[in-house]
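Exercise 7b. Backbone tokens:
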């Protein structure tokens, strides 16, 4: 059996971003699958790929969502990997640099999408400056991305991925 919709939601979305640092929630989410104290990203990928399992992390306005898919017999491996990533992420500087480049490309690609630009513009018209639902401009996101560092991500991770605001559905 394939486990579908095995989901972990943590209150760590864009509206939880530290003041002036709108890139931090998404960058933190990207880093969760890039190595832990017990396994680097290649070992994690090999372990999951070896059984055809997947773990993905993405952010929304209010939450970070972690979706895992595996055969039911591999659910224990999937949950152990997720627990390790949530509890022992390392935020290695070399991986942060790579994630920042990937996110920069995503931000720039999004700025060329008429639907994304329209939604961002709508939030800027509907919500006042400083409102958590107001989208950051492309320039603000890129500036935040340039300034973000591993210590910012670790601080956000410690504050938001602590289990207190986590919902797990299997």
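Sequence design result:
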């Amino acid at each position: 059996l394939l486990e579908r919709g095995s989901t972990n939601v943590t209150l760590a979305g864009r509206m939880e971003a530290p003041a002036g640092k709108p890139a931090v929630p998404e960058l933190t989410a990207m880093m969760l699958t890039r190595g832990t104290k017990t396994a680097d990203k290649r070992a994690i990928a090999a372990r999951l790929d070896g059984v055809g399992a997947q773990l993905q992390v993405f952010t929304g306005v209010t939450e970070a969502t972690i979706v895992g898919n595996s055969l039911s017999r591999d659910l224990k491996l999937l949950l152990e990997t997720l627990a390790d990533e949530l509890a022992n992420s390392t935020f290695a500087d070399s991986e942060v640099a790579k994630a920042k480049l990937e996110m920069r490309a995503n931000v720039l690609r999004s700025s060329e999408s008429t639907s994304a630009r329209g939604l961002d513009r709508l939030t800027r018209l509907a919500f006042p400056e400083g409102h958590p639902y107001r989208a950051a401009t492309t320039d603000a996101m890129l500036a935040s991305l340039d300034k973000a560092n591993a210590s910012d991500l670790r601080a956000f991770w410690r504050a938001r991925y602590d289990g207190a605001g986590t919902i797990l559905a299997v």
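Instructor comment: The chain has a mean pLDDT of 91. The beta strands are 2-10, 54-59, 64-71, 166-169.
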